[in-house]
Amino acid sequence: MILTLSHQKGGVGKSTVAWNLAVYFSGIMDTRIVDLDTQRSLTVTNALRKEHNLPSIKMIHFNTAEELAEYAAADSDDVLTIIDSGGFDSAFNRIAIIASDLLITPVSDKPFDLMGLQKYEEILKSLSVIQGETIKTHVLFNNINPAMKRFGELVDFICTSEHFELMVSILRQRVDIAHSVGEGKSIKEYRIFSKADQEMDDLIVEVKSILNIK
């Protein structure tokens, strides 16, 4: 199975979400991370994990898009590959989108995120034409102000596009998130039963349901 955190816009929280999902699923099945981010954020985070004597996660890097395509072609249900794509359009990221069993696109409530989502929709449209099927991503509200209850035109846009499906889970701004990653930990490892942990648990349950992981 391939799960990709994908958005052509950077700074939306793809790496943080990918990391927390990877740490959790590595405890119940063979899980790998493909780090396509040019900053190699998760590779650095994994190194911090080793420094804190925590079990590391298998990291995979590819030199060419063709290598990624070959890896994806050999995908199996026994292994979960989580791809942290870069915040830009590229051959690497387009292959990840096409190969994925589940796409997750984090967005915040900021005005620029609506514009970014509109541009990302154009990428999904063009790939759908090439593939001959509608490619859909699950949109995750991430880094949301805890007091925010309504999302206005962003929800309207998401619900009217055939390429987007809004996730039930919402991840809000929590101090624990930044602190946990800084130690190479998941939110649960950093502070169990916190609000951030509970919200991540909700996301994990939703992802397991979508991918039919028991």
UniProtKB/TrEMBL annotation:
<dbReference type="InterPro" id="IPR002586">
    <property type="entry name" value="CobQ/CobB/MinD/ParA_Nub-bd_dom"/>
</dbReference>
<dbReference type="InterPro" id="IPR027417">
    <property type="entry name" value="P-loop_NTPase"/>
</dbReference>
<dbReference type="Pfam" id="PF01656">
    <property type="entry name" value="CbiA"/>
</dbReference>
<dbReference type="InterPro" id="IPR050678">
    <property type="entry name" value="DNA_Partitioning_ATPase"/>
</dbReference>
<protein>
    <recommendedName>
        <fullName>CobQ/CobB/MinD/ParA nucleotide binding domain-containing protein</fullName>
    </recommendedName>
</protein>
<feature type="domain" description="CobQ/CobB/MinD/ParA nucleotide binding">
    <location>
        <begin position="6"/>
        <end position="186"/>
    </location>
</feature>
